[in-house]
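Thought: the user wants the 3D structure for the chain below. I'll pass the sequence to the structure tool as-is, report back what it returns, then summarize two notable features.
Action: structure_tool
Action Input:
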Amino acid sequence: MVRGQKTEGKEETAQEQNRSVNRRMGAARERDTGAGTGAGVIEHSRQDNSPGRGGNPPPPKTPPPLMNFKVLLPFRIFAEKTGVTRIVAETREGSFGILPRRLDCVAALAPGILIYEKEIEGEVYLAVDEGVLIKTGLDVLVSVRNAIAGTDLAKLRDSVEREFLNLDEREQSVRSALAKMESGFIRRLAEFYHD
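Observation:
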């Protein structure tokens, strides 16, 4: 109310209005709590949700899901592992990691190092050639042209160099055989044409 306003035939000041409001609030508090009589008293207990102290029990601990990992070569299955916790692969855009709950995906792999980890074995490194990685649910399938496994990167590097040198020698012998076949075919075709 504003000073000078009449209420029930008398004028109230701001202080009197405050006192009146405080008295009414105090009376309402006493009425709600049943001051002195104990009637109407409501006690609220704090709910304790910590484990072992009542409240909601903690959710049961389930082991995290583990992935099934398979590496395929054109002529055989190179590796088939279960219980894989994570995989790191390389694409032309860079490296990316795969955990069990990652969404399904497909990626074109670049030649490089693929890493998978198992709880027991730890990290295992695979030198892989170009290929494809497919993740569906908890299954991860890698299909590459060539792969070499190892747990030590230095030894793996030496193995890769030896393997690629052998491939280079084989490729050179195959290329020379193809060149001889092509030249023989062209020579015979030329002879046939002239006859």
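Final Answer: Structure generated. The chain has two helices and eleven strands. The helical segments are 14-33, 153-194.
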